[in-house]
Amino acid sequence: MMGMHVDSLRIHPLKSGAIRHLTASGVRRSGLVGDRAWMVVDGDGECVTARTDRALFTLTAEPLPDNGLRLTSRVGDVVEVCRPAADAATVAVTVHRRPAAPGLIAADAAQALVRSTLGRDDVTLVACSDPNQRRLHPEFSQEGDTTAYADGYPVTLASLASLRELQRLGAGDLPIDRFRPNVVIDGDLDPFAEEQWTRVTLGETIFRVATGVDRCSMTLLDPQTLRTGPEPIRTLSRHRTWEGKTWFCIHLIPELADDQTTTLAVGDLVSIA
């Protein structure tokens, strides 16, 4: 299959926060550099996401030098926070009840902004202490595969060919950002062809395909209006349901050494490895 390319790239520096579009990104074994490196957790250390706290979508997070973060609320409040030192206080955290690397507790000013945005005083902003500590689902990963605070795997890939087919099937003018992928590809490929791949090369990096992505209610939420509607779950449930779940996008794992960083850019060629 020829003529495929990377159409767009995005990261989510704060898990469930606003999407950050990029023209290029570093790639490590744990995913795109800076993706879901910070997270909000509740009093039990469980991740807080826009599934239940949709105001998270209104927080824009911009990575800063030395792995810091600039948080901007929808009303224009801004806080810059340094990544906590390695010996800073930590909290044990889980991502959908699965253990992840301990969270380094951010400075008080950042906590205040997050709590006021969500209207909750029982949440804590944390930075991932070490993504290499987290292990992935053994059925779909290999020894040493890891990620920070993504739901399950380092990278999510979507195809615009698949989106166009989903729109044709009845989903309407649905943007790809509803699915919060890291990498969007386009070109000469059939709808949903990506689900048959085992490996794919994006630019200079080979990725292993881990599994498809079962979609949740967060795809129903418009990140701009914070309103929910029936799509895309309604159309997915009619045409893309198996194993009792609805499916769209695929999860990827970079085939890189622990100390290796590559670069991925919009326009890079895509080929089946």
Q: Percent range for helical residues?
A: 10-25%
Number of discrete domains: 1
What multimeric state do the chains show? single chain
Q: Write out the strand line-up for the largest beta sheet, numbering strands in chain order.
A: 1-15-14-19-17-16-21
Whole-angstrom Rg: 18 Å
Q: Count of helices?
A: 3
Q: List the helices and strands in order.
A: EEEEEEEEEEEEHEEHEEEHEEEE
Structural class: mainly beta
Organism: Phycicoccus elongatus Lp2
GO molecular function, one term: molybdenum ion binding
Protein name: MOSC domain-containing protein
What report would you give on this structure?
This protein has helices at residues 108-118, 160-171, 233-239; strands spanning 4-11, 20-22, 24-28, 31-32, 38-41, 60-64, 68-72, 78-81, 90-91, 94-95, 98-99, 103-105, 124-128, 155-159, 183-187, 199-202, 205-214, 241-242, 245-254, 262-265, 269-272. It is mostly beta strands. Helix 2 (160-171) crosses helix 3. The chain is globular and about 50 Å long. The strands form five sheets. Strands 1-15-14-19-17-16-21 form a seven-stranded mixed beta barrel. It has one domain: PK beta-barrel domain-like (M1 Pyruvate Kinase, Domain 3), CATH 2.40.33.
SSE blueprint and pairings:
Layout: E1 4-11, E2 20-22, E3 24-28, E4 31-32, E5 38-41, E6 60-64, E7 68-72, E8 78-81, E9 90-91, E10 94-95, E11 98-99, E12 103-105, H1 108-118, E13 124-128, E14 155-159, H2 160-171, E15 183-187, E16 199-202, E17 205-214, H3 233-239, E18 241-242, E19 245-254, E20 262-265, E21 269-272
Parallel strand pairs: 14-15
Antiparallel strand pairs: 1-2, 1-15, 1-21, 3-4, 3-20, 5-13, 6-7, 7-8, 9-12, 10-11, 12-13, 14-19, 16-17, 16-21, 17-19, 18-19
Helix pairs in contact: 2-3
